[in-house]
Each structure stands twice: as C-alpha cells, then as structure tokens.
Amino acid sequence: MRMFVASLATETNTFAPLPVDRAAFERAFYAPPGRHPDTPMLCSAPVVAARRRARQDGFTLIEGTATWAEPAGLVARGAYEGLRDEILDQLRAAMPVDVALFGLHGAMVADGYEDVEGDLLARVRAIVGPKAVVGAEYDLHCHLTEKRVAACDLVVLFKEFPHTDFLARAEELVDLAVRTHRGEIRPVMRTFDCRTLQGAFMTNQPLGRAFVDRIMAMEGKDGVLSISVAHGFSAGDVPEVGTRTLVITDGDPDKASRLAEDLGREVLGFARASTPRHYTPEEAVAFVRDAPAHPIAFGDRWDSPGGGVPGDGAIAIETLLRHPDVPSAIGALWDPIAVDFCRAAGVGGNLWLRIGGKATPVSGRPVDAHVVVKGLSDDLIIPFEQSLVSLGPAAAVSIGHVDVVLCTGRSQTFSPPAFTNLGIDLAAKKLVIVKSSNHFSAAFAKVCAAVHYLDTGGPFPHDPLTVTYRRVRRPIAPLDAHPWP
C-alpha cells in the first residue's frame, strides 16, 4: 500500500481586516516533505498519525508539504494557489497511491475561492482516480460543504472543544483509510444541515460533554464507523456556513442519513443552552474578589486570535487597573512594537509604553502606562496538547498589581507557560485573563481554581445579527425563521 499525506490549513474570518499571504504560512508553520516534526501541529496531525501507522504496518508513506497560518482574514489568491499546486505536484510525483489523506482546517477562504478545501480535494480526486481512498481531517469549526464531502471517502472532525483530540481523530482517519483499502469496511457518508449559525457547543460543559460521550459510544457498533459534528464558523461569510452533522456507516446509507438527522436535531435543541455565562470585566473582578479560591482564569473569547482578530485589545487592562486590591495578569496581547521597546529596555527597565490598540479599528483604544519589564523571551514556546506553539519574542511588564504578557507571534494563549516562562507567578494572582476562545481551558484548569469566560465587547465571536452576510444560503437561523419543523 502507498499512502500520501499533506496538510494545508488556516481559519478565515471574512469580516477581519488582516490579510494572509504565503509569508503568514511560512511564519506560523511550514514543513516541506519529510521535515515535519514528530509532534503534530493541530491540523497537521494526519502526518504524525500516518507515520506511526506506516512504521507499524510497513506500508510506503509519501509526505507532502504541511503548513498552517494563524487565523486571520482573506487568504491571497497567489498564496493559496501556490501552496495548493505545490502539494498537488507532490501528489502527482507520488503516483500511483492507494490512499491520500489531508489535514485541513475547513474554514479557509481565499480570494476567488469560497470553498478552498473543496477545490483542493476535487483536484486530488481527479489525480488519484475513483478507486483510491481519499480522506480528510477537519477542525470542528469548519464549513462542511457538499463538494468536499463528495470528493472524499472519509471525513473525520475533531470532537472536542477545546481541541484536545486532534491526534486521536487523525489516528481514527488513518485507521479507517487502511481498513477501507483492505476491503474490511465500505464507508458511506451522509450529512444533515442544521440550518443554523448557532450550533456550537463546548465539550467542557455538561451538555456538550454528555452528547460527545454518547456519540463516541455509538462508534464501532451496529455498523456505525464514525460520527462528527461540524459546529461551523459563523465568522465566514460563505454559502455553506453553519452547523452540520456527519455519519459514516459501513455500507448503510439509509442508517447514516437517519442518524445524521436525529443527531442534528438534537444539537439544535441544546447548543444554545450549553453556552456558559460570559462576564464583563467588571463582573469578573467582582466575582473573583468574593471567590473562596484563586486564581480564577477568564478566557477573553471576544478578542481571541483564534477567531481571526488581532488579539491586541486592551479594554480589560483598563478595568484591572481600577482595582488594585485584585492582583491580576492578562495575556498574551499581540504587540510587536511594545515588545521591541521592552527588549531594548531590558529586564528591570522602566519605560512609558503604549499597550495594544494598534492593529485595526476593531482593536479598540490602547493603554498608556509606566511599566517595569518583568521578563523577556527570545521565543516564547508554549504547549497545546501534543503540539508546541511559538508566540515569538515576548515580554512581560508590570503596571503596579497588573502583569501583562506581550508577544510578537499572533496566536491564542493555550497554556500557563505563556505567563510562567516570563516570571509571572499565577498562584499569586486572583484573576488571570487569557486571550483564547476555549482552548486555554484544559491547561489552565490544572493550575486555576476555576475557568470562566469574558465578554469584553470585542470583535469575535460576533453576534450574527450585528453583521451583514452577503453570501450565506438562506434561510438560516438566526437570520431567518428556522426552516426545520
């Protein structure tokens, strides 16, 4: 057996004014064939999973390019086409192949390409022919379009939010692909369109946890091979945005269709109810002041770089500075200029610094303060499950009782080393504000008394009713009355 594997991924917020070129991919993560590290980099997990299985089973593995750009705005046409053609040329050189697998995010949008992944996979199918097994792994915040599903034999999505299972799902994809090639299973995929922009749920909350545990228990029984829920990414103004369920059965299309619809209707019933409370900064301060145990972490979901926005909002800092009785920390804010100034001043240096509010109008106003440089890093590396993420050169500054982490690499703050590696003692804090949507929660729950969520009024996740969609298929809730009885 000959297997080809590659990865091309980013998450596009079509409302964000942050352009993405090829350099953005190379700056975040770019591994040419054979140069991928032993650890997965989120969407490139199929590369690592395929390596492990190839060593175990002894089949021939041909690796293509694996690359990722941090979530932002529209991808330049030349950047996408160049990377796409690079991977397709590698696939052509590898032919004949029996299996072709891809690590994709599923919410990439490029200039001239509303369905990037559908375009890529349709071209892959044309190269490998109808008999080869084609499969893809997606982030659950994807657009599960008809074109990309039709091009594949197998599609597997992350189940967990926060994303703690990307390697496990990649291993599932590889296993299903190997079994399909061997003729042990005959996968049939069916989807159900929930027709909503509000079907997302968190699996660290009771309703979402119970649902995912139950669908995982269904897999491997009664002919059900795999179940996925595409939560969707409502910051993408594309025709097939929204929540969908996908079921793969062993040769039973009717069962796959029925189960996909049953599960989709169930998601519609609980998704909104599963959203936890989001506190304003002032409410968060009041909450932690009276809490019996500290520190308490709050995810700044409305200004998370994982949503494609800058991540340099300083609104919460203004609130923290008004409450000197609450020792706090916040980070990591994307502010390369401020980091450069801090590096020039050195650890222990005192300077006036303008923090945040630099990138775009949605960044809000900056904070001007006299700071002391508390820590510096030439490259702040933090773990995210099995992967490692670089925040680039970084600095920690103190403004009295408030410590702020500043970084040059725009990415979510996935884990406590973003603070502790710069000398910030989280145990001495009452309140820790983390620039992340939800992916911070698993790691911070290990060192914090509790994890909650913040609403700073920033640009993401946005209320679908407050933006103008021009490309979305209608009707879809909440823009329209829900079409399903």
Describe this protein's structure.
By secondary structure, the chain is of the alpha/beta class. The protein has 2 domains: 2-274, no CATH class; 281-455, no CATH class. Helix content is 28%, strand content 24%. It is built from 13 helices and 20 strands. A 9-stranded mixed beta sheet has the order 10-20-11-19-12-18-17-14-13. A 6-stranded mixed beta sheet has the order 2-3-1-4-5-6, with helices on both faces. Strand 15 and strand 16 (387-390) form a beta hairpin. Helix 2 (45-57) packs across helix 6 (166-181) and helix 3 runs parallel beside helix 4 (116-128). The longest helix is centred in the first third of the chain and has 18 residues, at 77-94. The protein is globular. It starts with a strand and ends in a 31-residue tail after the last strand.
If helices are DSSP runs of H or I spanning 4 or more residues, what is the number of helices? Answer: 13
Q: Fraction of residues in helices?
A: 25-40%
% residues in beta strands: 15-25%
The total domain count is: 2
| Classification by helices and strands | alpha/beta
Characterize the quaternary organization of these chains. Answer: single chain
CA-based gyration radius? 22 Å
Profile the largest sheet.
9 strands, mixed
Gross morphology: globular
Mean pLDDT: 96
The strand line-up of the biggest sheet is 10-20-11-19-12-18-17-14-13
N-C termini distance: 47 Å
Poorly predicted runs: none
Overall number of strands: 20
